[in-house]
Write a structure and sequence with these properties.
elongated, Arc Repressor Mutant, subunit A, mainly alpha
Length: 86
């Protein structure tokens, strides 16, 4: 988020307000959505460890990726991957 704010000439509050009005969600919500989509893609198409998937998708750890999945009411990354490996 800090990098985004350096690129736009407005305060964080003003940016968040305009972003939400235009996209219907917070900037952080959109960033999280993109990271989760990337994690899904990696889990479906690679045999990377959960920790590596988390790192490549922009999460600080495999544990945080698991928490993000849980907060979305999704199965764990390991459970999500199981059918894809079948």
């Amino acid at each position: 988020m800090q990098e985004v704010l350096q690129a736009v000439p407005m305060s964080r509050t003003a940016f968040e307000r305009k972003f939400r009005r235009h996209f219907g969600c917070s900037p952080y919500g959109e960033i999280l959505k993109v990271r989760l989509q990337h994690a899904h893609q990696l889990l479906s198409t690679t045999r990377l460890s959960i920790a590596e998937v988390a790192e490549r998708a922009g999460f600080s750890s495999g544990e945080y990726l698991c928490v993000a999945f849980k907060n979305q009411a999704w199965p764990s990354p390991k459970t999500f991957r199981a059918p894809a490996r079948g």
